[in-house]
Amino acid sequence: MSVLAVEALSKSYGGVQALDGVSFSVSAGELLALIGPNGAGKSTCFNIVNGQIRADSGRVRLNGRDVTGASPRRMALEGVGRSFQVAQVFGSMTVRENVQTALLAARHRLLGFLRPAATLLRAEAEALLEQTRMAARADEPAAALAYGDVKRLELAMALATAPRLLLMDEPTAGMGVEERLALMALVRDLARTNGLAVLFTEHSMDVVFGHADRVIVLARGRLIADGTPQQVRADPKVADIYLGRRGGAE
Amino acid sequence: MSFEAFAADWPLVPALAFQAINGFASASTLFLVAAGLSIIFGVTRIVNMAHGSFYMLGLYVAVTLAPLVPGPLGYWGAVLAAALVMGLLGALVEITVLRRIYRAPELYQLLATFALLLVINDAALYFWGPEDILGPRAPGLTGSVALLGRRLPEYDILLALIGPIVLTVLHIVLTRTRFGRLIRAATQDREMVAVLGINEALLFTAVFALGAAIAGFGGALQMAREPANLLIDLGVLGDAFVVVVVGGMGSIRGAYLAAVLVAQVKALCTALGIIEIAGISFNMSKLTLVAEFLVMAVVLILRPHGLFGRPIPPAHHRGSVEAPLRPLTTTGKFSFIVIILGLAALPFLGAAFSYAPVLALDVLIAALFAASLHFLMGPGGLASFGHAASFGLGAYGTAFAATSLGLDTITAFAFGIAVAALGAALLGSVAVRLEGVYFAMLTLAFAQIVWSVVYQWEDVTGGSNGLFGLWPDPPFDSRTGLYLAALAVTVAGVMLLRYLAFSPFGYGLRAARDSAMRAEASGIPVARLRWLAFIVAGTLGGAAGGLFAFAKGSISPEAISVGRSIDGLVMVLLGGVQSLAGPLLGAGTLTVLQDTVMRETDYWRALLGGLILLVVFAFPGGIAGGLALLARRGAGR
Amino acid sequence: MMRGSTLVRAALIGTALALALLPARAAEPIRIGELNSYKAQPAFLEPYRKGMELAVNQINAAGGIAGRPLELITRDDGGNPGDAVRVAEELVTREKVDALTGTFLSHVGLAVAGYAAKRQVFFLAAEPLTDKITWSDGNRYTFRLRASTYMQVAMLMPEAAAAKRKRWAIVYPNYEYGQSAAATFKKLLSAAQPDVEFVAEQATPLGKLDAGPVVQAIADAKPDAVFNVLFGPDLAKFVREANTRAALEGVFVVSLLSGEPEYLDPLKAEAPVGWVVTGYPWYDIVLPAHKAFLDAYQGAYGEPPRLGSVVGYATIRSLAAGFTKASAAGGIDAERMIAAFKGLEVTGPFGPFIYRASDHQATMGAFVGTTAVKHGMGVMTGARYVDGASVLPSDAEVKALRPAAD
């Protein structure tokens, strides 16, 4: 069974149809890339799945459960981890505290007052930092990290909820080539070892075709291609949209 | 049916219609003071506490210049000159004061403009003296016209027209000129200005000058209606905030609509006078005391960003992100204990130090109040402009329990704290749905509503005079007993707040402040944590109020006034919002400073303002930030 | 580490100041601790301060009190009860003053009165008008100089009743002073003239009167008389708006305090005409005591006195009389001062008056007259002096009004 199943999502703003009957699914251990020209509806689609926007119609299922319209917070507690296009971490806290906070939230322990948080779930936080190769930076303030490290910290925090599905909005935006490939390799490893489903949007084609197991393509709110990177690359409709620059609302 | 016959059958209809027309003149006045504030906030994100001062100075300048030249030229020349002078002053203030501190943490500009408010008020006292100055009336517009069987002043008609005219001119400037487009671009997205390669400094100066000039113009126009006096600056500031927020920050037409709404509600309350509902008569005119804040609370609850406002994009921290909080080291803990012991020894130092515990008691109360506000502002990231509400609820709860209910000191104190906690739970449940400046303004509105209830509920609260004779029972009735009890309460409160900041709750709260998006995506119940923080802050603020009531033996509505909320903000910002020690430093400094300068000079407000400015310039992160910087430098060498 | 240090710093600064300012006590003067809202109410209190200084200088030039000079220590009370109580504490604990005096705002005066009772310090409230300070919240340590709200209203009552108007409107600032003035007026007028009808009541926010709507609402009620309690900028706005709208034409107006130069002078030629007011027509008083005061004041400051000057002067004169009487009885401690002030006779600019033993209220009166405009300035004409004693309730009535005091 697929981890995430999206069924016939539609959304319009005013008279503009941003999303028109889009369906797809992601399985455990699979990296699915969502691509398309600017304005094709990627962000709308992505934000409906993560709960920030409500769809006009259609369903979002997580492990078979209908979670359409759930808030971002509920999605998190249902097992959806996220990373943002501009990485979001808790700048005034140390790297370890960031992960501890995410862990405490996932375990519903934030309303605890009796013990100082610094001692709680410390080993687990360090294990996650180990996984994302951030252990050496555990005591640094998050605001002082290099951008690549912020991205990896964000990944560690996303993993803190023990997610079944990871949503990544342009995970490598703002990074250098080396860093990009290293991050996606890390994500791929994590997906394989944890049986994690990953849905990501991406502009950079070397990332998409280098790391995705499957690629879906949106244009003007419709899904126009769904297949392996090779199939999509060979699809004339896709080439047409990208090369003919007719996509979206541009 | 003739008008006369109609008016005889329905006397209230023409009365209300006429009052509505009156309302438009008042609306123009409100709009003029608010429009500049809105533009300034929209572009610079500065909550300009000195805006009312520009309005007041505009009026002073106008009443000074107008008599120099007789006739319409003198009058209208003075109005325009006042606007011009205020524009220049605004530019000067921006260049000499605000430009230095744009990189300071958010709200530090508020501290600087508050200092300016103090300085300008004393400057006006120095130049124009204490007596009200009534200016001339507008030549040619001193009469009135007949309307609906009543007389409508010609000047009111002019004022009613000036609002829409200024609105139209501003609208044209904002939509048709490059300057206007820049203002709108900057209002919507600050980063864009930098991207477009615009000289940000110049834009800010121009915007500040424009805002100040409009305020000065509005003040000068009042020449025909009210005397120049020293209470105007704070008086109009509250109104201006309300109008800007109700209209939606940064929206000019919103500001006009809000001004009309507020003025009409007030005019209606005045026109209705005494009404009877179910046999109980109520004087509606008493509602004018708080009408604008009632309007603001209702609007913000229904439309969290005002009538025409949009969510304000976060101001992308211009200042530094605060450093991670660290628990105390062993030396730190040791010093803390030594300090507490030192404070506890204060009453036993002999007659030469007899005043020290008196002043220290006020410092303790201020410290607890500031620390509780800081919990909301610092770890919580929510700047409350109405923290006086919790202080006042605690104080009045305690006072009511001790006097009317006759409870003993400790029970009365507990009762007061409970009242404050309950009030915070209630108000907080609505307020935490908002963020940033809208949160600040809703809390301000709530505090003003609580204030007006206390101010007018004579039977329970003693009305404007308050409650008296609530000295504590033994052993707290002696100076030493009360001081030591207050020390214990304050230390316990501060330790609790510190403990909470390091608890999972504190982690979650700070996380939600740093990134609400990340917090939500991590499953942090942001709204609930903020609500709890609001209750914690309210409870301890209430404890400070309870101590205050016993320390002073009396309590008056002044305990809930805007002034006290501002004092709290100033203490937190002065001390440093980014450090748990900040509010304590700020409370100590402000209280001792105020006590000292009040004795030293008649112009103590200006002196206080000047000292605050010095601190802001020297330590843009507050005193605690400055000390930390010095410590780091010392260690680095 | 730093979090506690603030308190220590504060305390250190406080104690350092305490040491630095500790007074040298060579000549053993009698020390009067005075606190007032100088910053909040400068228009009234600048002349008040001058009045006090004049009295102190005169008394010291005449050899002081029982050989001891008077020393006046003035402080700003911050305009709020919280600061005021601390300032009072400072005057008592550090400056070791022999008596407290001053205050302008009613809630500040009441708070300091409460403090005085608690710490058993003698307090002469100079200016606060509230009835509570001598009646419902009166205490044995507190006396009050100025004619109270009740007295001021009662002084206007003969004219108000004589006008025989049926439809009265009332406008007052929405706080205790305004409320109690309005309530007293309604009570006294209803008693004097049972068929009176109150057709409108406007309670306006202090200092923020929206004059247009308020004047119109009053005019709409078609009153034939108005009782006004507004003062300061509110009064100026009200008068201008009423003139423009011709709203008070033919309406009889009775107005509290409006004849005081502090409030009448700023109106200049636009001062209302024909209003019956309480106030201080310094230009038109023939009392010898006032003549002496006027000459001395003008000689010292080169400007005419305001009512504040009279209050400041009479405050110091009262305290001096009290100190003299108490000294003769063996000392100037609080208990002897209380005993001295009960029935104390004082001569002020308005002539002799006493402090009543029953409610600690001075009988210094005020002038009632009709406003007019002369040489472009508002003045009171036909003013008569109303002795405070003539409008105060009897000692027996007062006993019931003073539950808190012994």
From TrEMBL, chain A:
Gene3D superfamilies: P-loop containing nucleotide triphosphate hydrolases. InterPro entries: AAA+_ATPase, ABC_AA/LPS_Transport, ABC_transporter-like_ATP-bd, BCA_ABC_TP_C, P-loop_NTPase. Pfam families: ABC_tran (PF00005), BCA_ABC_TP_C (PF12399). Residues 4-245 form the ABC transporter domain. CDD domains: ABC_Mj1267_LivG_branched (cd03219). Keywords: ATP-binding, Nucleotide-binding, Transport. It comes from the Bacteria. GO terms for molecular function: ATP binding. This is ABC transporter ATP-binding protein. It comes from Ancylobacter radicis.
From TrEMBL, chain B:
Pfam families: BPD_transp_2 (PF02653). The chain crosses the membrane at residues 20-41, 53-69, 75-98, 110-129, 157-174, 195-218, 284-302, 334-353, 359-376, 413-432, 437-457, 482-509, 529-550, 570-593, 605-631. It is found in: Cell membrane. Keywords: Amino-acid transport, Cell membrane, Membrane, Transmembrane, Transmembrane helix, Transport. The keyword Transmembrane helix applies. It is a multi-pass membrane protein. The keyword Cytoplasm does not apply. Belongs to the binding-protein-dependent transport system permease family. LivHM subfamily. This is ABC transporter permease.
